[in-house]
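Renewal narrative, Specific Aim 1. Our central claim is that a sequence can be written position by position from structural information alone. The example that follows is taken directly from our test logs and has not been curated for this report. It begins with the structure tokens describing the chain, in the order in which they were read.
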């Protein structure tokens, strides 16, 4: 469910990498 926000990671590629590495924990709410 958090992988869908990966498309909005054009301005913050650093934050997107974190959101893709923590979607398994279920606590990846770093928009």
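The sequence written for that structure reads:
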């Amino acid at each position: 469910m958090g992988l869908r926000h990966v498309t909005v990671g054009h301005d913050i590629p650093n934050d997107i990498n974190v959101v893709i590495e923590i979607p398994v924990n279920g606590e990846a709410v770093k928009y």
